[in-house]
Amino acid sequence: MQLDEFFVTGEPLIYGAMVSIALVTAAIIFILTYFKKWGWLWREWLTTVDHKKIGIMYIISALAMLFRGGMDALMMRIQLAFPGMNFLNAQHYDEVFTTHGTVMIIFMAMPFLIGLMNIVVPLQIGARDVAFPYLNAVSFWSFFFGAMLFNISFVIGGSPDAGWTSYTPLAGAAMSPGPGQNFYLLGLQLSGIGTLATGINFMVTILKMRAPGMKMFQMPIFSWSTLVTSFIIVFAFPILTVALALMTIDRIFGSQFFTLTGEGMPMMWTNLFWMWGHPEVYIVVLPAFGIFSEIISTFARKQLFGYKAMVWSMIVIAGLSFLVWVHHFFTMGMGAFVNSVFSISTMLIAVPTGVKIFNWLGTLYKGRIQLTTPMLWSLAFIPSFVIGGVTGVMLGMAATDYQYHNSYFLVAHFHYVLIAGTVFACFAGLVYWYPKMFGHKLNERIGKWSLWFFVIGFHVCFFPQYFVGLDGMPRRVFTIIPEWMPLNVISTVGAFGMGMGFAIFVYNIYYSLRYNEREKSGDSWDGRTLEWATPTPVPFYNFATVPHVEGLDAYLIMKEKGQTTFDEANLKPIHMPSNTGQPFIMMSIMFVASFGLVFEWLWMAIAGLIGVIVMMAFRSFDYNDGFYVKVDEIKRTERSARGL
Amino acid sequence: MAGHTGRFPVKHVIGFILSIALTLLALWAALGSDLPTVWIIVSIMALAIIQAGIQLFMFMHMIESESHNGHVPWNMIFHGLVLAAIVVAGSLFTMYSGHGSGGDHDGDMKHEQQQEQHEGHTEH
Ligand code: HEM
Ligand SMILES: [Cu+2]
Question: Which among A434, A499, B102, B117 has the fewest CB atoms less than 10 Å away?
């Protein structure tokens, strides 16, 4: 293979990207060397098994991916603003929308939420870490390397261009030759290992490691949403794993599962993809519901209204989410009977979702509402998400879906649920738990500016798309006709508004780091749940003494009784896991193996896989049981953190 | 896990080797053997059940549970089965109804023939 086949050539935009990647990498290496930070990076971050640090790494990566996906989005919006634009050609446009969709769902939304779960859930349930800290590090590094693998595709080898859904036969070897589609398959496969492991990890953590006394129905709602999400992950991700593996075997070893020839069934891919894909959209929205519930209850200064109904509606949603997948391909031709069945199940799933909306409204009702930034994000979410949900039900009616399917109406729907649901929640959650993570709040005034830019930009961008969709504009086209221009111009303006909002958000991180007051107590917002019972910064063992939980809103009860998580009389040595570089090394070898498979260099793939098996064997005979934190050290840490 | 002594995990190694052997056997049955199709299907099904058993008993501590004051996770097993049923039955239901399916053709009919047939049958 020639070098010019290996690197993508001939596109000025991509040359620009290559130069900036090289510059940023060089800058990072320079800074780390100059300030002698390599050792710090290795000891404190790359080898950590601490759920809080892993969570922070997830969130930083997710923000980077949000930036990448956002740049893709702006490029598409520029191209679509006017008829006959020549900013992106058809091929490049296809690559950009494929990358955008995949990055946003797999490498932005999920990791962002998993990052927040990592930081918050163990604290909320009064645990000292997740059940399997080593596995947690494996999860993170598998996501990280999967994301890297997918992201280098646009400079090395070429991006996939068959959409984030990658329907066969288009995505098969016959119609999409070359490494592009392999990057999709292996990037998702690699990061999928981590997601599955995370699901198992949180399931066990929540079921087994709650503080003494905490019953299931006394668990904070975000932890509940994490539990339900973990179940969906554990049941849905194996379907994706198998589907991806089948397509990989098709493309690399010439089998014919999804091909047009040799009795392959291309539509089976669509079927399997959505059997995972629909549960997936709930994987990214249920934790968001959890975050909003926490925030609304905190800032309405009320117990969550209808807590039990909230929990049950999540469980019902989780169950139903496995029974509606066909609504994504009503037009494929299964016939009226199949379509009717799934039309009805789709309408059913809107019922528990509606229940939750009323629960939030009920919580707000007669509350003493404080309009902080996280609360404003949550308030913006409610009406926006209702629009997304209602149009979802419209799409769910099979007969009308023949009109809406694959038009901008659909595009508007899923952006209304994904952005108003997931992205608003990520911002809200990050702002809300930021003081717990970094020891200071984000600036409220700048935070509100970023919120208004983002929320207004969002509506300006996506509301017109419903109408341009009804005017017949199909999705995934790279050029528009003059009739569609006015609404598209508005849309593009809105997109830049969102871009501004994001930029202000990032600036706020910098500004608050420099100028915002440090937190003096661990309880930044007068919180109700146990994460606020820990001091800030949270000691690595989380709780000096694990509290006994007596009801919902455990910390509120503790505050009334004057209890803390530092009961000097009852300190005992704490057992903690040791740091390890193995997960990082194992997943970097896995990265090499996957890279080999992408280019179909089997020697490299096999060598890499052998390396991974060696690492696993190594782990199997590794009897490191962690270490004990001495009572003296706990005392010292807590006293200084609590200013005693 | 408290109190492990660095003992060699014999059971796990046996389970591991067995599960790989069974996989290879299934692969051979499908690709390398001359068995009639029905028997191939029956044999790989049987191998799959044995495989599941190995996973449950050698790795998932199914029988140790009583002594370690745990319980057999019937609940999860049940939900796993329900999901498998949804995947299989659901795929059959969607893929083999309506006119897009081509589901009524003979198992080993070649694609070209199938297309010819489609051209002949207008009501299909
Ligand atoms: C009230 C509940 C909802 C209903 C009834 C609903 C219904 C639908 C239907 C019928 C489609 C397919 C339309 C078509 O392809 O023509 C669709 C697409 C989609 N929905 Fe929803 N939806 C709901 C909630 C959500 C949520 C909560 C999310 C994610 C957070 C979501 C994300 C998506 C995505 C990503 C697609 C498009 C996928 C693609 O084709 O690329 N939906 N929805
Ligand atoms: Cu769906």
Answer: B117
User: Taking CB atoms and an 8 Å limit, are B95 and A272 in contact across chains?
Assistant: no
Q: Which of A265, A325, A337 sits opposite B97 (nearest CB)?
A: A337
Cβ–ligand 1 contact at A106 (below 6 Å): no
Distance of CA A17 from the midpoint of ligand 2 (Å): 34
Q: Cα-Cα-Cα-Cα dihedral of A206, A211, A217, A223, to 10°?
A: -40
Q: Based on the domain organization, do A31 and A59 belong to the same domain?
A: no
Domain shared by A191 and A105, yes or no:
yes
The type of residue at A1 is M
Average pLDDT per consecutive 10 residues, chain B (124 residues; last block may be shorter): 58 88 92 89 93 85 63 79 92 78 42 42 40
Domain residue spans of chain B: 4-123
Helices (H), B32-110: 37-54, 74-95
Domain that holds residue A25: 1-36
* Residues A294 and A231 reside in one and the same domain: no
Ligand 2 mean position to B108 CA, how many Å? 34
Predicted-complex ipTM score: 0.83
Q: Dihedral through CA A428, CA A430, CA A435, CA A441, nearest 10?
A: -60
User: Is A534 exposed, middle or buried, given 0-12, 13-18 or 19+ CB atoms closer than 10 A?
Assistant: buried
- Asked whether A387 lines ligand 1 (CB < 6 A), one says no
Residue A272 in any domain: the answer is no
- Together in a domain, A17 and A145: no
> Which two three-digit tokens encode residue A176?
């999409």
Residue nearest to atom 25 of ligand 1 (CA): A417
C-alpha A232 – ligand 1 centre gap (Å)? 17
Number of separate domains in chain A: 3
Using one digit for the tens of pLDDT, what is the confidence trace for A593-618?
Answer: 999 999 999 999 999 999 999 999 88
Indicate which residue's Cα is closest to atom 4 of ligand 1: A392
